[in-house]
Amino acid sequence: MKKNRAFLKWAGGKYPLLDDIKKHLPEGECLIEPFVGAGSVFLNTDFSRYILADINSDLIGLYNIVKLRTDEYVAAAREMFTPENNVAERYYQYRAPAIHLTASEKRPLKDSCAIARTTPRRTVSPWSAPTSTVPTLPRRMTARISSG
User: Fold this and answer.
1) What is the DSSP string of the chain?
2) What sign for the dihedral angle of Cα 126, 127, 131, 136?
3) Is the pLDDT of residue 53 over 80?
4) Residue 104 pLDDT
5) pLDDT tens digit sequence for 4-45
């Protein structure tokens, strides 16, 4: 089976270790991944359900955006990933506003402590979310994304 690369580059990524990791995974219906990172393990396994967790609340927020607002995320990414934006000056322009946000300016997801339910990863979720703001989770909060 060809390995799938995650859409993120992640320090300490498990992609090079996938073959060894998969040998040690138990059989079952649900994979619980407490350190999801870029998601190389869950993207390269065939469980019917997944529970993904990470201490990095911004990462979990990103996964929730991709899950709940897929079309909007893809459209924004297409606008951003252009040759004109692939220069250092633009990177710092995009990054600057996010660095200066205070905790009170970040809007937590309504269900940040709850289990977010989705359909299995191979199907498109019929759910939608409000599109007026980009939600983020409070720092140091572990959230879970599960399916089933």
Assistant:
1) -PPPPPSS--TT-SGGGHHHHHHHPPPSSEEEETT-TT-HHHHT---SEEEEEES-HHHHHHHHHHHHSHHHHHHHHHHHSSGGG-SHHHHHHHHHHHHT--GGGS---TTTTSEEEE--TTS--------SS---PPTT--EEEEE-
2) negative
3) yes
4) 59
5) 999 888 888 999 999 999 999 999 999 999 999 999 999 999
Task: Report the candidate in 127, 143, 146, 133 with the shortest Cα–Cα distance to residue 57.
Answer: 143
- pLDDT for 97-129, tens place per residue? 777 766 655 554 333 333 333 334 433 333 333
Query: Is there a contact between 51 and 145 (Cβ–Cβ < 8 Å)?
Result: yes
Which residues make beta-bridge pairs with 143?
Answer: 54
For residue 130, give both structure tokens.
């409000």
CA angle at 109 for the pair 69 and 96, rounded to the nearest 5°: 80
- 0.70 exceeded by pTM: no
> Alpha carbon of 45 to those of 18, 25, 39, 77: distances in Å?
9, 9, 10, 26
For residue 32, the model assigns a pLDDT of: 94
How many residues can be counted in the chain?
A: 148
